[in-house]
């Protein structure tokens, strides 16, 4: 099989399954051969997941994490998109704000943890604030770039049909920038999901991040640590698939260059 | 020579255009004066880069002349207007809207029933029946071009500006599109200003061909095409007019 050959339908599922199986086998036998007492085997982890499930802590922790992400990411979207569109629309304003943004952007939300605790104390609020920070900048930047990359032909056509500036923004510039905005949202969600785990290790007593750190602290239950890690991975993947799904909606698919 | 007078639609008076970039100023248009009559089909031809598109963009109100004026129906043009629609080389259709959505784009103020009637009418006129729900990415270049023309016509403008609209199409599609445009023009009697670098295209379509010089552009000659439609493109008169324009541009019998 070379890179040009189209994979058969069964191959799309078979190869990833085989690869995952091999990885699990490698994991399993590594645990056996090294005789480690600390690190769990895949079977231990599976039992761990079932245990969490039966003790009714799995769903509640997943729920807490998702709830925080929903609020933090939701707020970042609701503030970030209008702000980014405005900044993209008024380049002069963008030049004023841009230096501050460029300095804030590379600061990891994790570095904000002490500041967040001063601002918001302990509990849900600092965690949500950190998620907001992590998601906010990628969204704003995606909107600014999206708007400034809108081909001038579209703006001209919109003006030609007599649209006022606000209508032009809503009916031409926003839909033209939407593919890039969706990419920004996907990136931002990925970051939010990374940040929630870190934030939950610090200031709260629920969520998947808390589950990881708590399982370690209360009796070195590494089977539960890895179980929680796996859940974090699976949920992150599921959301990424949802965002990828958005990219195939017909009114934005044109922006992703893989249409056929 | 003036065409049968039906009143002047567009008048360009002593239009000069100078572009300034990095402190260097380049004159692009020099003292262009031109009258276009109501319902007339005028083609602008000239060597590539001579400023044909600049003149068209100025007429459409996207650019303002450095000096001189463009007026339409006696009113000075100060910006784009929905009574005069500019057709870009097919790149102007909105990829996020369906064929219907594109044609209905300028019709938000109409009632739903009226809008749907208008959309259906123009879909039929440009032969896109069956593609109502299709997105531009699913259409061929020629279909996208027809879609953009339909979107322009749907708002019932009195003028169309076409900037090399068929330039990106293959030669067979281009011929078909010329025929379609003439048919639409004869049915709707819009005033059309059409930029092209293809002299055959100009002589096949236009009532008058405006030949522009190299930059800074001046009007070198205005050729009246006195052949009735449908035009026989092997008739002696057609060849005579075409060769005359080629000679003007300095390209006659060179290949």
Features:
heterodimer; A: 260 residues; MetI-like fold; 78% helix; B: 255 residues; alpha/beta; Rossmann fold; 2 domains; six-stranded mixed beta sheet; four-stranded antiparallel beta sheet; 7 helices; 10 strands; 32% helix; 26% strand
**What is the name of the CATH architecture of chain A?**
Orthogonal Bundle
- CATH fold group of the largest domain in chain B: Rossmann fold
Largest sheet of chain A: none
Strand content of chain A: under 5%
Shape assignment of chain B: globular
C-alpha geometry of chain A: globular
**For this structure, what is the CATH class of chain A?**
Mainly Alpha
Biggest chain pair interface: A-B, 21 and 22 residues
Distance between the termini of chain B: 31 Å
Write the CATH homologous superfamily of chain A. Answer: MetI-like
Q: Roughly how many Å is the radius of gyration of chain A?
A: 23 Å
Which helices and strands, and how do they pair?
The complex is a heterodimer of chains A (260) and B (255).
Chain A: H1 9-34, H2 42-54, H3 58-89, H4 91-104, H5 113-120, H6 124-148, H7 152-160, H8 165-200, H9 208-217, H10 222-246, H11 250-253
Helix pairs in contact in A: 2-10, 3-4, 3-6, 3-8, 3-9, 5-6, 6-8, 7-8, 8-10, 9-10
Chain B: E1 8-21, E2 24-37, E3 41-45, H1 52-60, E4 67-72, E5 75-76, E6 84-87, H2 99-103, H3 112-125, H4 141-154, E7 159-163, H5 171-188, E8 191-195, H6 199-205, E9 208-212, E10 219-224, H7 236-249
Parallel strand pairs in B: 3-8, 3-9, 6-7, 7-8
Antiparallel strand pairs in B: 1-2, 1-4, 4-5, 9-10
Helix pairs in contact in B: 3-4, 6-7
């Amino acid at each position: 099989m070379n890179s040009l050959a189209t994979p058969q339908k069964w191959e799309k599922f078979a190869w990833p399954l085989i690869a995952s199986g091999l990885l699990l086998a490698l994991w399993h036998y590594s645990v056996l051969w090294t005789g480690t007492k600390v690190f769990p085997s895949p079977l231990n982890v599976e039992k761990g997941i079932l245990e969490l499930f039966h003790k009714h802590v799995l769903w509640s922790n997943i729920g807490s994490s998702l709830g925080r992400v929903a609020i933090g990411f939701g707020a970042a979207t609701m503030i970030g998109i209008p702000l980014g569109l405005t900044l993209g629309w008024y380049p002069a304003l963008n030049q004023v704000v841009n230096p501050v943004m460029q300095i804030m952007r590379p600061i990891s939300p994790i570095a904000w943890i002490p500041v967040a605790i001063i601002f918001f104390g302990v509990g849900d609020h600092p965690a949500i604030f950190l998620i907001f920070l992590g998601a906010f900048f990628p969204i704003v930047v995606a909107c600014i770039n999206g708007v400034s990359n809108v081909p001038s032909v579209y703006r001209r056509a919109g003006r030609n049909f007599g649209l006022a500036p606000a209508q032009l923004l809503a009916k031409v510039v926003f839909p033209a920038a939407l593919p890039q905005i969706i990419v920004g949202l996907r990136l931002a969600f990925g970051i939010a999901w990374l940040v929630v785990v870190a934030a939950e290790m610090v200031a709260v007593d629920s969520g998947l991040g808390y589950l990881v750190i708590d399982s370690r602290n209360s009796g070195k239950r590494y089977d539960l640590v890895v179980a929680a890690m796996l859940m974090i991975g699976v949920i992150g993947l599921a959301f990424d698939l949802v965002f990828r799904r958005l990219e195939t909606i017909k009114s934005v698919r044109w922006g992703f260059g893989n249409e056929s | 020579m003036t065409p049968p007078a039906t009143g002047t639609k567009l008048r360009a008076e002593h239009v000069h255009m100078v572009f300034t970039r990095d402190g260097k100023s380049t004159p692009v248009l020099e003292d262009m004066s031109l009258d276009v009559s109501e319902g007339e089909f005028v083609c602008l031809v000239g060597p590539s880069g001579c400023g044909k598109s600049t003149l068209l963009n100025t007429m459409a109100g996207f650019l303002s002349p450095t000096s001189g004026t463009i007026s339409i129906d006696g009113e000075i043009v100060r910006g784009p207007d929905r009574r005069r629609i500019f057709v870009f080389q097919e790149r102007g259709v909105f990829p996020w809207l369906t064929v219907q959505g594109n044609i209905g784009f300028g019709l938000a103020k109409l009632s739903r029933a009226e809008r749907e009637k208008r959309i259906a009418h123009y879909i039929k006129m440009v032969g896109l029946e069956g593609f109502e729900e299709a997105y531009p990415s699913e259409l061929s270049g020629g279909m996208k071009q027809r879609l953009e023309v339909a979107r322009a016509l749907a708002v019932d403008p009195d003028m169309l500006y076409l900037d090399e609209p068929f330039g990106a199409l293959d030669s067979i599609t281009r011929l078909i599109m010329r025929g379609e445009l003439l048919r639409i023009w004869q049915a709707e009697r819009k005033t059309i200003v059409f930029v092209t670098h293809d002299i055959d295209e100009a002589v096949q379509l236009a009532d008058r061909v405006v030949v522009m010089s190299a930059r800074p552009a001046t009007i070198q000659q205005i050729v009246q095409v006195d052949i009735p439609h449908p035009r026989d493109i092997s008739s002696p008169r057609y060849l005579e007019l075409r060769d005359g324009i080629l000679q003007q541009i300095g390209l006659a019998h060179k290949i």
